[in-house]
Amino acid sequence: MKDTPIEDPSEEKKVTFEDLGFNYDLLDALDSMGFIYATPVQAAAVPHILDGKDVMAIAQTGTGKTAAFLLPILNLLMDEEYEGKTSCVIVSPTRELAIQIDRQAEALGYFTGVSSVAVYGGGEGASFDQQKKALTTGADIIAATPGRLLSHISMGYVDFSKVKYFILDEADRMMDMGFHKDIMDISKQMPKIKQTLMFSATMPPNIRKLSAELLNEPEMINIAISKPSENILQAAYSVYDHQKDKLITELLKGKKSYNKIIVFSSTKKAVSSIVRALGKGGLVAKGISSELDQKEREKVLKEFTNGTTPIIVATDILSRGIDIKDINLVINYDVPPDPEDYIHRIGRTARANATGVGITFISESDQVRFSRIEKLLGEPVHKSPLPPQVGKGPEYNPIKNKDSYRKPKSSKKGKSNYKKR
Description:
CATH topology of the largest domain: Rossmann fold
Helix content: 25-40%
Number of strands: 14
Distance between the termini: 32 Å
CATH architecture of the largest domain: 3-Layer(aba) Sandwich
Strand order of the largest sheet: 1-8-2-7-6-3-5-4
Radius of gyration: 22 Å
CATH superfamily of the largest domain: P-loop containing nucleotide triphosphate hydrolases
Number of domains: 2
Number of helices: 14
Strand content: 5-15%
């Protein structure tokens, strides 16, 4: 696996999309959207993809990963004769991300004539029939979740014999969710000779194993995980678990000027409980997790995006890949299971040079986990005193509380609880 060194480009070194040699129709689409300069991961990945090489790219959320693989694929498809069958399959962990990839493909491909379809579970029978039709007639690009795609494949009408490009987005998240076997089964439906691209936020051992199984002499692109934006004001509260609902209600009562707030919970079971607690406190909030069907999830996201619902409570399905602008505040109701997840979560705010706030609730059993986040950050996060109404919380002392540390639960090997995604 060959490494591509990445430098932080200065103003003089910035790469334009025109520099990358894209087709003029694609450049017109980019120009109409106001995109001029490529991000570091785009500048590094695009030339290798256009050269037909397999790529393993490590870069965190918000670095432009989706465009890093979509743009060169669109460019390549424009230069190929359409054969009436699917040419590119993109697999992602959640339906939200599959939908977002499909929409971005439509936007970027507006002037190209390249077609795309999102394939995901949770919808009505009509949506399944629409997906079947697209898979049967051969849309150029299929953006899919593993479980639903395999459901279609099992019916016998999916023909991936002409697939030239196989892309895995948020590969580490898919592995965490137990999709290794599904990914391999999908790959077996395609020709052995194809270009495979893998994009991931982290590079744990299971991703190295997957890349060795799927990629052929890949170019390795590694954009080091960056620290949170300096425009994010970070703070934390040391609390007992039973104080969290009272604390979040008190904090959000004083944030009436904030019209977009995300509360992250590490479990979908807690989402409904948090929403109820906020409702009792007179706050308007809705939850989103894999428990909701697709129409309900899209409705909640739309209401949050347009400001109708100011507070959304979510699991980590929103921490990666979902682009929602103007988020004022992110609250970690639970400490994220991995330090990188903390970066992804609070990175939802303070985008495009805006300012934002990231707050974390630290229970006694999560103090060791939070200390690892502080180690990644390279500095401690300010611990704010609890409001008087909430009462006194535990002392923040990770060394003293290491015996109560809860290890994050791992998925059972080869099994998945997310087939309906």
